[in-house]
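Cross-check.
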Amino acid sequence: MTANLTSKATFDFVSVLSQAAAAYRGERDTLPSAEILVNALLQAEKSAKQEGLTYPFESLLGKWQLCFATGTKKVRERGTNVLGKGLYVPKFMRVNVSFNATLAQDSDRDEISNQVEFGPVLLNLTGPVQYLSKKNLLAFDFNQMLISLFGRVVYNRPMRSGKVKTEDFYNQPVAKLPFFGFFLVTEDFIAARGRGGGLAFWIRET
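Predicted model, tokenized:
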């Protein structure tokens, strides 16, 4: 079933996430609290599972700014991880993720780019992706690092810490790779749960 965000069941959480996106951009005054935003994300995730929503990789293409994220913490009594409270990414730091489709017609090797800007310093990690559209799972591995200072590249080399070589990446099962499970994708924002259990919310770069 393809995504449809017009039903009454999706109205509340879509409104909260839309408010967060607009406020983070400075188009509205008030950001929803972290608790309200986490609840909206959990409701969106539950709705996606109930409705069996799927999203094509093409709907993820472009550049997205990380707006909000939660970590996880381990509960000793349960021996399991639970969601942290979450926080908005400070405005003085920009964290972006980009998904790019290959330009070659005979290739399905798409790319992810994760970029962090802090003052004059820019860190950019890139690598290949695998996308399972039936499960909305995007597996990735970073294998190239670029660092620039005041707009000048000072480091640009392959990463030794990459889990697998690019040629072997596509033969790896998704369960063994870092991944995002997307449960909400719109023109304005996207949301996913990471392999570690945390939630992330991005808004489209304008």
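The two ends are 29 Å apart (CA to CA). The first helix runs from residue 8 to 24. Passed to J.P. for a second look.
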